[in-house]
Amino acid sequence: MTDIPITIPPRRGVAARLARGQSIKVINTHGNQVVDFWAINAQDPREFLSMEHMRATLQRLVPQTGDALISNRRRPILQFLEDSSPGVHDTLLAACDTYRYALLGCTEYHDNCTDNFFAALRTLDFPMRECPSPFNLWMNIPWTSEGALDWGVPVSKAGDHVVFRAGLDCIAVMSACPQDILPVNDNRPTEAHYQVLAG
User: What is the pTM assigned to this prediction?
Assistant: First the structure.
């Protein structure tokens, strides 16, 4: 538990252990930063926050405050307690990776959320073989009734935050998305912050 916000460095990832009943506050420090967010059962890496299982349970594309966030074993891993932003988040898109940036024209290595996920977990000596789809906090991906998607700038403002409470012992992973080709971070990736709270 900390009263001082901890930095999620720009273009990098961090991981934090949460005991059941503890909460985590993720802060969009400058307002324009997408944070890819994951939660994994601390006792069993085969169970994790799952976007596809959550959408089926909630029957909507984006969770709202008060909702349970659902694992791939179809049980609550987190509770969505607070959201001071307009509530525009994404559950559809996979984390960016080296293959994605190659498709966007990069010919050299580009920082990416998938590598950030694994690097953050290595700091806790916690093994994962695959990177689940993240809960993309503040990512603005407008969609149409015909199913078309677009790339929008976040509509959050500086200091907006979300709070999740752990339903079981878990590891939270956060990546300050390094996307600087598409406008999802307003083309200027920055740091974000988080705090682990008592409850």
Answer: 0.96
Residue 26 three-state SS: strand
The alpha helices in 48-148, defined as continuous H runs, are 51-58, 98-103, 113-122
CB 38 within 8 A of CB 134: yes
- Give per-residue pLDDT as tens, 59-80: 999 999 999 999 999 999 999 9
Number of domains in the chain: 1
At residue 198, the pLDDT reads 82
- Residue 21 in domain: yes
> How far from 111 is each of 71, 134, 164, 174, 184, CA to CA, in Å?
27, 16, 27, 14, 15
Range(s) of the domain holding residue 71: 6-197
